Amino acid sequence: MNTDVWAVDGSFFGQRISGIQRYSIELLSALDALVPPGRVEIVTPPGVRAPVYQNIQTVTFGTRRGLAWQQLDYPAYLQQRGARGLATCNVIPLFGFRGVAVVHDVCYRARPDFYTAPRDLASALWHRLQYRRIAAVADAIVTVSQFSKSEITRYYGVAPQRIFVVYNAWQQMQRIAADERIFAKVPQLRRGEYYFSMANLLKNKNFPWVLRAAKAKPDAVFAIAGGGSLQGEAKRLGLAGLPNVVYLGYVSDGEAKALMHHCKAFLFPTLYEGFGIPPLEAVACGAPRIYVSDTPCMREVYGGCAGYIDLETNPGNVDDVTPPQRDAGELLARYSWQASAQALWQVLEQV
What we know:
The protein is an alpha/beta fold and 351 residues long. Helix content is 35%, strand content 15%. It has helices spanning 19-32, 66-81, 107-110, 118-137, 146-156, 182-185, 207-216, 230-236, 253-262, 278-284, 296-302, 337-350; strands at residues 6-9, 40-44, 57-60, 84-87, 99-102, 140-143, 163-165, 194-198, 221-225, 245-249, 265-268, 290-293, 307-309. Strands 3-2-1-4-5-6-7 form a seven-stranded parallel sheet, sandwiched between helices. A six-stranded parallel sheet has the order 10-9-8-11-12-13, sandwiched between helices. Helix 1 (19-32) crosses helix 12 (337-350). The model has no long low-confidence stretch (mean pLDDT 96). Keywords: Transferase. InterPro entries: Glyco_trans_1 (IPR001296), Glyco_trans_4-like_N (IPR028098). GO terms for molecular function: glycosyltransferase activity. Residues 183-301 form the Glycosyl transferase family domain.
């Protein structure tokens, strides 16, 4: 085996970008500045384009797409190349993989009550199978927080010395230009006078808390960005038609940056996260304060720089949030993709 070469599963470049894909993209970009030429390759399915790097080589291999490529063509490349694999998005080939896997969180295992619809149940079963397989065969596991590391050990019995923490970061927000035109499009939003959240229907994101907070504070405006049937969910909850709630739908990155910069506070009442990057991105965009749920993960990541929502005693009230003890801007010095890439490279070199 050519243990000097790491072959990265690059199929995520063909996927819709969420936090997991963003982590992979930014980490590899920073890693490119650190690694010697010829040590890291990104392998992609046909038709999926990866960026052009200085030191990291990109290779197109195989004939399949999607899950079939990931489970069949990618491990075939590892075998043919004699390389170790690096899988950054929670999934590895069930057979033929040796290397390092990134597990962002084990929510599917820790909170099965979040996944009750048939499609969600199928996804939960698949990911729990993946977690077990990663625990069994990966040379090392990378995760995004000490909290997530403790969860992997708790649920899958992985020895702590096999798990390494490589944090998320925020510098990608520097490349985005704020689009202030959103305030002309939505005149109900006045700079500095609204609460902002980015929502979806995933149960861990706790969208109902924001609606209850809006109902409890009718004199304040709550702006909610996100796709899906958020208004339909509000109707199901009996919280439709609140006059102080503005549903923005999908917003561009530039619009999101402007909304974060000018909000009164960014709301993130999550029930479960491995890291929880949106509040960090909000601070990077200039949000004056962030309110997050009072959970071990959020305490680890945000420390005294956030206001905390005690979800057991606070069903929805922004006025009953423990205030931040420190300037939120101090967060930015804690996290960088360069430092995270260095930590990842140390793991790869150690393995």
